[in-house]
Amino acid sequence: MRRQLVLGCAILLASLALGGCQQSSDPAVPERVAAASGAEPAAQVLVAGVTSEIFSSASKPTDPQVLFIHGGSYVHEASALHAPFFEKVLRNVNATITMPVYALAPEHGYRVAYKQMLDVYLELRASHPDSPVVLMGGSAGGGFALGFAQSLVEQGLPQPDRIVLISPWLDLTLTNPEIPAIDATDVLLDRKALLPNGLAWAHGDDPESYRLSPVNGSLGGLAPTTVLAGTNDILYPDALRLEARAKSAGLHFELVTFSGANHVFAMSPGESGDEARSIVEKLIGALG
């Protein structure tokens, strides 16, 4: 089984039965995302009007659909880690991964991106009514994914079948008292550097509101949720906080902790990354 980068609507309609898509008409978008994601050559399609990268190993229309929300502290495109991660996952799982190229700060705030994500999510569900849906996100995208799932509950819309969060940024304010100790040794993230990006994403709204800091939101009605987190990550203390709240709320929740692992280790080479990726594959495969 190999990962295929879907090149256009004809392939999508024939092999994946994904309706309502067009090739992206913005010539700047493919070049920008190609440089970021490592896809070669980059090919994007419009899903519900939102430019998206699609990776697939699906063999039938009912295989799982994965809506992946990339990280980048809400100001950067998808990193070069994504395409190789997807490729490895899709070697072992029959599924389609859709990664929207959503609006970023500082030009846009979260409200624009939430609307885009809702449009893509509803299109995936409508075009694949018999496919299970996995909502997945990494880093800032993990926080976005959880807040988005909470917004679905609030709107009375159906949940995905599974939520998977990789090293999620769960509290935009980064005020957890356990963070400073890790901040001193975290080799990838810096609290002071992240905060301005978070405020830009909030666009003047309360950064503690659940769409921005989902660890503060209601966990009632959410789909089964798995969080993969490393202990050498300033975002880890809020993953622990989410775990405690999930237990109190009775949410079907699992925090898988990797001792000594850094931020987004699950998408990086190494033993911990391989183990985390295996968990992701099992979670997706169990729905197929």
UniProtKB/TrEMBL annotation:
InterPro entries: AB_hydrolase_3 (IPR013094), AB_hydrolase_fold (IPR029058), GDXG_lipolytic_enzyme (IPR050300). Residues 66-266 form the Alpha/beta hydrolase fold-3 domain. The keyword NAD does not apply. One of its GO terms (molecular function) is hydrolase activity. Keywords: Hydrolase, Signal. PROSITE patterns: PROKAR_LIPOPROTEIN. Pfam families: Abhydrolase_3. Residues 1-19 form the signal peptide. PANTHER family: AB HYDROLASE SUPERFAMILY PROTEIN C4A8.06C, ALPHA_BETA HYDROLASE FOLD-3 DOMAIN-CONTAINING PROTEIN-RELATED. This is Acetyl esterase/lipase. It comes from Agreia pratensis.
